[in-house]
User: Fold these one by one.
Assistant:
Number 1:
Amino acid sequence: MPFDPPVRAEYEIALTPLADVPLERPLGLWHRIWQQGWLRKSVILLVLALLWELAARWQNNDLLLPSFSQTALAFVDGVVTGELPGKVWISLQVLLKGYLIGIVLSLILTTLAVSTQLGRDLLSTLTSMFNPLPAIALLPLALLWFGLGDNSLIFVLVHSVLWALTLNTYAGFLAVSDTLRMAGRNYGLRGVRFVLFILVPAALPSILAGLRIGWAFAWRTLIAAELVFGASSGKGGLGWYIFQNRNELYTDKVFAGLAMVTLIGLLVEHLGFNTIERLTVKRWGMQR
Amino acid sequence: MSSPVVEPAPLLQVDRVGLQYRSATAVVQATHDVSFDVYPADRFVLLGPSGCGKSSLLKAVGGFLPPAAGEIRLDGQIIRQPGPDRIVVFQEFDQLPPWKTVLQNVMFPLLASRTLGKREAAERATHYLDKVGLTRFADAYPHTLSGGMKARVAIARALAMQPKMLLMDEPFAALDALTRRKMQEELLTLWDEVRFTLLFVTHSIEEALVVGNRILLLSPHPGRVRAEINSHQYDLQSLGGVSFQETARRIHRLLFDENQPAAAPIHFQDVRFSY
């Protein structure tokens, strides 16, 4: 005997408009405050500074580990006298030159790679050869070729930016869906216009990731290069400031210089890249 | 229906076309010796089971896939590459660049093909957005829209180009059944107003009968022409009617029961739910 479900009476309900049920309610004040990313990150920074202060007090040796307050004083002092901003300006000028040249070269290389078979081979060969090569290892060679000066620095900077950015951009180009490519060709776009109007915006999340990595690589390379030979160029940057103060055992100034490096990193990350992301890929729903 | 005046010239001629796909290990024959003519204001449907090469045919007409044999002519000109005179509406939602708003998306082909200046493009885009009922969403980004709305944007974008032909590759297949029904209805209304020429690919017999005025049946693997059938007499109101069901059954027989003609009992359920 098969088991049948019972037959029940049908019914209909006439729906009246909902009046007293709110469709949304605001989050609590505390929730809303805690939603602010800058606040959460500031709390983290504060806790780190506190730990540092405690560790320095406990260690009690200014020469090895100056406290947070001492470093802050040296930092403020450096900023007020204009010494630190001057050094930063020198470093940033060189950095931006290298960074921009790297971006342009990378765009040319990836455009070649998406348009021709030979360009593709060139890109994969060059990146696999040079990407593992530390930029700083090229510095002696660069000094030989370009002499003591900004040009050598720019050369190693381009090297540190170019390959990371190229790898990311190309990977982003490859990930652009066939449908979008066909839509672009359907509109009559080809060549450079196709790359600029379809591939670059569609691959923007990867390109931004590449720009981020490139920026970090460039910073590291620049500071390291200045530590090695910053003096010889006559007007050293931030790396040279750190190196010089270590030689004279002004450890608090060394820390102030390092703090400046991290501070600039934080600023560029949050005011620069995060803003660009918020205005582009996040707004377009391409990235969470 | 119309009085017999001069026979109009076909807009699109597909002439003994063979299409091939090259995979890593083999060359796959997608279609063999396919010929058909599409006339202006036709709603011409390519219908067949999956693997019959109907999408490949549409891609070939779009200019994305050069024929291995035969030729395809639009207005007498052989098609060699993609171009804005044949706008394709794909099934996938990511055909709309996510970095452009709805309005910018509709303007994009007009600007990219240098058909119109910025202001004229904006005017025309607004006009066609109004036609598909999306004026309110002109400044929204595609990721905030529902599937049906994205399909509407894709259609508005195609119509705004005023192409010689509109190519649709299963445009409603990714939509839910209710939205699909609504979109079919809207497409027919738009056709009534604008009278564009449509080449429509589907694997749903029901959709083919409703949307098309003429249906080309393709056999599976490799695709060959099995029949051409008139369906101009059917619309959404004829769903479930006797003659509609008979034609659907006939198409089903032509597509699937080649070896045992009419002997096997055919359940209409198979037809209705085949997509």
Number 2:
Amino acid sequence: MKPLLIVLSLAGLLLTVVPGLLVFLGRLTWAQHTSAMLVGTVLWFVCAPLVLKADRSSAP
Amino acid sequence: MPTITERLDAINEYDREPVPDSALRGAGAFAGLYAGEHVAGTEFVIGPLFVAHGVAAGDLFLGLLVGNLLAVLSWALICAPIATHTRLNLYWKLRKLTGPRLLLLYNIVNALMFCFLAGAMISVAATAVGIPFNMAMPGLDDRYPTTVGWVLTVIVVGAVVTTVAILGFEKIARISKISSPWMLLVFVAAALAVLPQLGVTSPGDFWRVANEKIWVGEPLAGRVHFTFWHVTFFAWFCNMAMHLGMADMTILRFARKWQYGFLSACGMYLGHYVAWIASGILVALALQQGGEVAPGPIAYLGAGIAGLFAVVIASWTTANPTIYRAGLAMQTVTPDWKRWKVTAGVGALTTVVALFPALMMRLLDFVALYGLLLMPMGAVIFADFWLLPRLKLRQDYAEWRRLLFAWPAAAAWLVTLAACLLLNLVWGVQIFFLGLPGWFIATALYVTLSYVQQRSGRRTAEPLVLERV
């Protein structure tokens, strides 16, 4: 479960930053960028706390 | 089943005794804490204010590089070694030097400054929370609450921030740790996304547009023109209360090694470099479009709803530790009160302060003043720790002699502030530059006056009460 959560957390971060870069490169519209950022934000704040919780519960 | 009051009273974070080894934390906690604290709501204000003060692009980039380096060195070489050696927070360490009566005065000033800073953060958060409700935003020159909507929004945000601060350091660090990497990316992505609207379509365009449209070297009406030196000294001293003023002893006393002070670079170069530049880009677009320049609207301009969320979280992760510190400061004033009750009172005061947008819109001046007011006591701690033993003088003299009021520390504090005021009024030295001469004045005064006090004490004073072990 933890590896999946880590992948989803990282996907959240990528969805936060990559769309902005694609707008700069002219490959994405501003509206698409903000929607993707919102999805990335939700993913990060749902998954990252669960990763930390898993870390704490597996700590000696 | 314990009541909520009993559970809150049971929170104990080593407020009044040295932190034990079992409570020390690793480097990751400090990297996260500093990154979270300095990639913050203020960054949405300070970056735009540099634009308003007409700094030129070259001065900004170079000034931030140098100023942030000096700030990191101040944390690592001045604050952290004393924090990790004593394991005490600022207030209980200072009590040994000042005596309880002078500490009372210092703590009141300190707590008020923390309240003002946290209040500015709550104002910043309110500019984001109010957008979905079409709340009218305060402008750059507004001083008083502008609408009922503004007042209600600030009260709600203040209540939430205070509640989390009451729950303690561990939870604050956890929230900072989670939000800081995401928050930095929001700043970067928002700035990248608006660059084409400013005319940057390839990396090669950036420097030209930066000079012509963003950091143009011309201040807005009523603002002082900022040079390289303004930027350098502001970047160095905007957290002067925390490093040279030693407030971060409260945090760094939990560090395993003094070298963790260098981890302040995570906050400086991400928050006070990347984020200030990013928010400057955002406000340049807002000014070009003739839109609102408050933090919420400019974040929305670059990142939509995620940007608003970033402003709220960014403000929250700064306001929380600040209210926590203010709670610690006031706890020494009211030692019989539990910390959660003190923090609740501090949070209420902070929320009232946040109602006034002047604090947010004049943040550069406030931050400089705040650091300056508290810095002399940091110099006193530095001198007491490093210099007095070399002069064969006793450290923690007030505690040793059970003094209620240590006049050398009081004189060092007040005379330094008076000297800085004189430098400002007579020679026109701007507030951003006063910290440097002030620190040396305070250090020299404390050493000299301690010498006088301890030498005269040896001849005339009563026998010593306690021997230190």
